[in-house]
């Protein structure tokens, strides 16, 4: 299995989409990597890849929108504000150092993790790794730059509500998780962002950016002994006061009755919709085979949903379905859009197509086609150092076991129509479906009542919850 540590092997594995033999597919494994923990509690993950002289670095912190509390958008703002300079170098100097070398520096906060990432040439590691360490541990959060960043984010939120497809998912998560932390909008709201100050960002960084709540991931062309020494020198003195933050219950999907959130956009000429309910956690043992089953329903262009709603009926330009897993729970949603007058027809056809999972099931030929498709898509997702660094970061932040990656091909090949039926019954929401409709309420209000208890929201109102 030694060849599997090389990028060439991964590229060969990428050709599995055109291979019918199971043996070749089963050979894919995640390249070896080393996990260590520094005395200060910092997790370090190192994966050598010597095919190209590039290095990808990630600092992954277990904190995101779930930790915002009443200050929606705080984690996301902090993740971006990390890049505004360090205690020793201002933003212009850091930008120049990375841009001059053709390197990439980025940051951001998601639902459960905040990541700072850098990609650069091996020859530039000595110059750029110290800067990377500075901004992670000692960001300046320059107030002038922070004001500019906050203003841009507020403008972005306002613009997003002009495009229902950009915000429908945020309404959907808010609907499903209610008062739970998973309902927090990662990007915040206009009001919450405008209220955030420099002290708030500094406090969030101090509370969560600490070695016992973070990992440094390095993937690429480096000498492991030298890299360990450099990481120890740059991050070994990182300290934090008090006990490390602990995870809490982020909430479970609310599915006690069928509900519809009708988000009124009076100038809309289309209805954007999501239909579904609760999903799975990212480390669920069924995560891999569920990708295959969902591929049949709505995970590729030739899926049932796309065939029925786009190809056969012309009700939309596209329809899909997806599981969106998080560390503790997740969501499942069918999503599409259609012209206002066709809203009822599109919703009914989507539901009818979804019901095929139970009424007819998935035959062997259809399942085999989906299995080949999924196997062909899988290896290319982990070809580059950047992709592998992101994967290792997710594995750390979301508690994804290595076995889920190494056994991917085996778990796909082991799926049968009988097992697929069991997965459908176990994980696809069937009763008390939840629905978000974004469109012109006066045109679809009556239609909405067919599908559950209706709550109306105004898209121009701040945030993504019903106003009280």
Poorly predicted runs? 1-26
Domain tally: 2
- Indicate the proportion of strand residues: 15-25%
Helix coverage percent of residues? Answer: 40-55%
CATH architecture of the largest domain: 2-Layer Sandwich
> At the fourth CATH level, what is the homologous superfamily of the largest domain?
Metalloenzyme, LuxS/M16 peptidase-like
Distance from N terminus to C terminus (CA atoms, Å) equals 60 Å
Radius of gyration in whole Å, from Cα?
Answer: 23 Å
Please name the CATH topology of the largest domain: Cytochrome Bc1 Complex, Chain A, domain 1
Total helices: the number is 19
Mean of pLDDT: 92
At the first level of CATH, the class of the largest domain is: Alpha Beta
Structural class, from secondary structure content? alpha+beta
In spatial order, strands of the major sheet run 1-2-6-3-5-4
- What spatial form do the alpha-carbon principal axes imply? globular
Largest sheet: 6 strands, mixed
Number of E-type strands = 12
């Amino acid at each position: 299995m030694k060849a599997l540590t090389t990028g060439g092997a991964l590229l060969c594995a990428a050709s599995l989409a055109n291979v019918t033999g199971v043996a070749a597919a089963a050979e894919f494994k995640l390249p070896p990597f080393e996990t260590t923990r520094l005395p200060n509690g910092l997790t370090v993950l190192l994966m050598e890849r010597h095919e190209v002289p590039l290095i990808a670095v990630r600092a992954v912190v277990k904190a995101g929108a779930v930790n915002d509390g009443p200050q929606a958008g705080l984690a996301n703002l902090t993740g971006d504000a990390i890049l505004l300079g360090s205690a020793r170098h201002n933003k212009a100097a850091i930008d120049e150092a990375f841009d001059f070398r053709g390197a990439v520096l980025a940051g951001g906060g998601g639902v459960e993790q905040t990541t700072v990432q850098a990609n650069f040439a091996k020859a530039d590691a000595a110059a750029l790794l110290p800067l990377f360490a500075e901004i992670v541990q000692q960001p300046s959060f320059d107030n002038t730059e922070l004001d500019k960043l906050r203003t841009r984010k507020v403008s972005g939120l306002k613009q997003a509500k002009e495009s229902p497809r950009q915000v429908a998912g945020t309404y959907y998560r808010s609907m499903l998780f209610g008062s739970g932390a998973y309902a927090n909008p990662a990007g915040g709201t206009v009001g919450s962002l405008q209220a955030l100050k420099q002290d708030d960002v500094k406090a969030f960084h101090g509370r969560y950016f600490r070695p016992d709540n973070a990992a440094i991931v390095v993937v690429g062309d480096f000498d492991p002994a030298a890299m360990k020494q450099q990481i120890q020198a740059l991050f070994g003195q990182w300290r934090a006061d008090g006990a490390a933050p602990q995870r809490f219950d982020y909430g479970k999907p609310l599915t006690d009755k069928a509900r519809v959130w009708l988000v009124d956009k009076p100038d809309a000429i289309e209805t954007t919709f999501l239909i579904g309910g609760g999903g799975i956690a990212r480390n669920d043992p069924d995560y891999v085979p569920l990708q295959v089953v969902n591929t049949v329903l709505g995970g590729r262009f030739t899926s049932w949903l796309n065939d029925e709603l786009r190809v056969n009926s012309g009700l939309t330009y596209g329809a899909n379905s997806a599981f969106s897993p998080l560390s503790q729970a997740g969501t499942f949603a069918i999503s599409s859009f259609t012209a206002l007058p066709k809203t009822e027809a599109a919703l009914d056809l989507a539901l009818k197509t979804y019901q095929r999972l139970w009424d007819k099931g998935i035959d062997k030929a259809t399942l085999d086609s989906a299995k080949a498709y999924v196997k062909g898509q899988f290896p290319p997702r982990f070809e580059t150092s950047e992709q592998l660094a992101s994967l290792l970061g997710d594995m750390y932040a979301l508690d994804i076991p290595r076995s889920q990656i190494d056994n991917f091909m085996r778990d796909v090949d082991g799926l049968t129509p009988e097992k697929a039926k069991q997965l459908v019954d176990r994980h696809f929401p069937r009763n008390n479906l939840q629905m978000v409709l974004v469109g012109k309420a006066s045109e679809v209000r009556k239609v909405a009542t067919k599908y559950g208890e209706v709550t109306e929201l105004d898209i121009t109102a701040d945030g993504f919850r019903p106003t009280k």
